[in-house]
Amino acid sequence: MRLCEGSNSVCLADRWFLYPINTVNGISVVLNLLHIGVICQSMKRKCHLYQKIVIAVSVTDVLNAIRLMTLTSCMLRNLVISYSGAAASSAIFQELVSYSRIIVLTLAFFDRWFVLARPYQYNDSIFVRFFWLFLALFCSLMTILVTVKNVLTVEDFCLHEIRGIQHCETIIGQAMTCYWFYPVLFVLHTIFLVLTIRELRKMHLRNVVTPEDKLVRKATVTVLIIIVAYYTCFMVQPITVSFENKSGTSRSLKLLMNFIQYLLISMYGILNAVVYGFMTEGYRKTVKSILCKTKVRPRELNA
Known about the structure:
mainly alpha, Rhopdopsin 7-helix transmembrane proteins, TAAR, 13 helices, 3-stranded mixed β-sheet
């Protein structure tokens, strides 16, 4: 594999770039694993779909933190630049982790709209009963697509000094996933956002709001915060790319923009656990119960 244009070395020379990002990602891994443990501890008998989605988001956050830590690994970079098989495998892992997170968030968005718009059909729906099957199906299709793309185009990859393997410069890469996938999901999420906010307004205008409605509303607001924060953090990426492509941009500015981008993405991995813990009273009670050996009602964590 060759170095990308403008890159001078395989490994990143500016080591200060790595320490805070790897520290945040390490915290993200530990926090999300604890987060999953707390939810599983609180839902020993029955795990509702909302908890399954929260667990799935945390799993993708753990994988994404690992992805970001391996992205700047000098040992891994020396391996992928020497062997095309290692380069293809690394690119497949990097892409699948990124795509799996947005797939889970899309299903979470649909779930929140569904429970608001079709409350009486929700519990018996195919989506609720076969959620893991839907998730596995979408991830399997994306795995096939990404694997075919990277195997066919691995010889055209290049290694960027800061951003790692660049795999979207080929016609196949651009046609299969690189440029259409996120815009399509952004439009889909915007539609879900409008529909979900409309359903929340209808719930707010009801004469009687039950305790279950309050739980559903709080869970929905939690998912909305996580998804809006996702796009807020990742909007730095196209800005960074535009700065790098602009002639005359100094190396220090490019490095700073990439540092901000990776730091925001890394911090986003912590957001799910923090927002869920802040918004869910039952979660905080569960943490206290683990520390103080008291019991908490599972219903308080339901949505």
